[in-house]
Please model this.
Amino acid sequence: MLLTSIAGSLPKPEWLAEPEKLWPQWKQTGDSLRQAKADATLLWIKAQEDAGLDIIGDGEQARQHFVHGFLEQVEGIDFENKVKMGIRNNRYDAMVPQVVAKLRLKGRVHAMEAQLLRAHTTRKTKFTLPGPMTIVDTVADRFYGEGKEGRIQMAMAFAELLNQEALALQADGIDIIQFDEPAFNVYMEDAADWGVKALERAALGLTCTTAVHICYGYGIQANVDWKNTLGHEWRQYEKVFPALAKSSINQVSLECFHSHVPMDLIALLEGKDVMVGVIDVASDVIETAEEVADTIGKALQFVSKERLFPCTNCGLAPMSREVAWRKLQALAQGAALARQRL
Ligand SMILES: [Zn+2]
Model:
């Protein structure tokens, strides 16, 4: 019980990509890049095991960004002519590619990392994909048309492609497939209205464990500034959790430690496994085992120990390797202490 895992991403070594950046440039090209991505993936599989985590991920070492890594393998997207777009309801600007034609997968997206992961750990594995609604919010549309109907159509089209890759990941032997939907915390009504449906379409037919990660974003300044406007209690989850509780998705990953999310919102997820964020990704201060165990203890008031999975609040990609490594250890040690307390 209290099986630990990371939300998804880990820092890239500086021989692979620019360190401590959300959209880093690769340091290699061609075959050297492919090899460097594989090497970094192996390195982090070992590091997660050494830290004592129970569920192991690929650390997203082979994708430049958690959304664009998937989009690069999609036909119908123009990566040559990126445009500046305000994303997450204009929280920050990003250079995003444009959807210009009917969407189709060019082939497998993450076969290399998933197969490496499966071959090099005997522990449970988790693999992350961006959720359809978050993709729609991280790409410019020149094909599906303005307004809500266009957005829903585009989300469903992406959901079909995600489903293809998710089924292939399952065939690779992945145990948990997690869709990342930070956009659920930004467009709460749309999320409850059609976001969860698109998510279920992406997970259609999967027999492995399915999960969704909903957070308040990476520890970058734009997100820190945004969080400062959200007031004393962050109740965004309250709008989406009831829809998720009714959905076919098995696990929900949420941000807790150092956030203003009222812990009792977890009770809205009855029947689901809950991945509780016990590690802050917006601070370089390393959590103590006591702090981690205390957060787990608070969450246990609202979810049973069989259904609680200690996790990081979000990905660790923009942090330094050293800090990330020590936070993985803190996660494992804190969960061990919580088990002792039980
Ligand atoms: Zn996140």
